[in-house]
Each structure stands twice: as structure tokens, then as C-alpha cells.
Amino acid sequence: MLVSEASTKVRSGTLHDADTQVTDAQLLAFIADEYRRVRRWLCAHAPRLCQSTVSAIAVTGTTITKASSLPDFERLVKVEKLYGGTYYPVDVETVLMSGDPGALSVAETPTTLVFSPAASAPGTYQVTYLVGALATIVAGTAIDLPTGLEDVIVERACAWVRQRHRELEHVAYHERRAAEILEEHTRYLKQRYGAMGQPGLKREPRW
Description:
alpha+beta; 2 domains; four-stranded mixed sheet; 5 helices; 37% helix; elongated
């Protein structure tokens, strides 16, 4: 589904097909924000569906800049450094490791991945990360979610349009529909099977 198609569904679902009390630009901005939220939810609950790997990243200093090397970065999974013909994992820096000059480690900042110690940093890296929504979202942007999950965005946008028009008696309906669709897809992801019979939903151990 394109963002423009989601906008059309929102206008149709709220019976405001032609009026401009909510402009196209306002609706697009709200849908973009909700898309980012739902994509972030998917990264947290079904990370394997959002995973991407970028290889052969050359580092001559001590950092990898996310914006240029890791498009639409949402969350780090792992960093590996090339030794010979094989990538080996790099430890994530901890407070205890930060003073050890012999152990290569990586720390994440809002904009970069920083390697230390500096003398060991140069090399070729491979980064596996979770991909979020696009930084720039326009009407022609495709909403990259499992089929049907886009309707969570549509229903939340419908609720927002209803409250802007002071049609408060309809807001709860759209909010309930959004919650129902999200719950339905949560169950689907739990039961989702690929060729190896592996569920798509992340499972956390309970202690």
C-alpha cells in the first residue's frame, strides 16, 4: 500500500472524501508518523522480518556514520570485522571493557558506531541492523509492512480525522479497530511458519 492509498482509505473511512478541513499534507504527516511507530513495533516484535546486513564497510578512522552507511537504521543487531576472508563479531563496549586497550569494541551513539581502541579500529566491517521506516516519506512511498498491518495506520488516522472534525462518537470505533488488527497480527506472527518452521515473533525468556 502506498501512503497516498492509505490517505484515500482514511478519507473514505471517515466520509470526508473531498473536504479540506484536514489537508493532504496534514494527513500525510500523520500517516508518516504512525508508519514509523508501527514499523518500530514490528522491529521489536518480529525483528527477523526487518533485518538487513551491509557488508564491506571501510573504516579508516574510528566511526561508521549510520545515515550514510546504514539506510533507515532503527536498531543494531551485530557488528563484525573482516579478518582474512571471514567476518568475526565485535563486542559491544561495556563500562568494564572501555578501559581495556587490547579489546576491540563498538559503542553506539545517536548518529554513529564508534570503535575503540582507535589503533585497532581501521578495517572492513559488516553490520546487521533492523530497518525502520524511511527518513523521508511522501505520497508515493510504499508502506513496508506485512499485508494487512497497514490498516492499523489507517484506523489510527481515521480516529485522528474524526477528532479533528469533533466527531467524537466515532473515535473509539477506529481506535478499537486499530487495536484489534494489531492483536490479530500479533497472533499471526506468533504462528507464522517459514520453510524451517520458525515463528516470526520474537520470544523473550521468562525467568
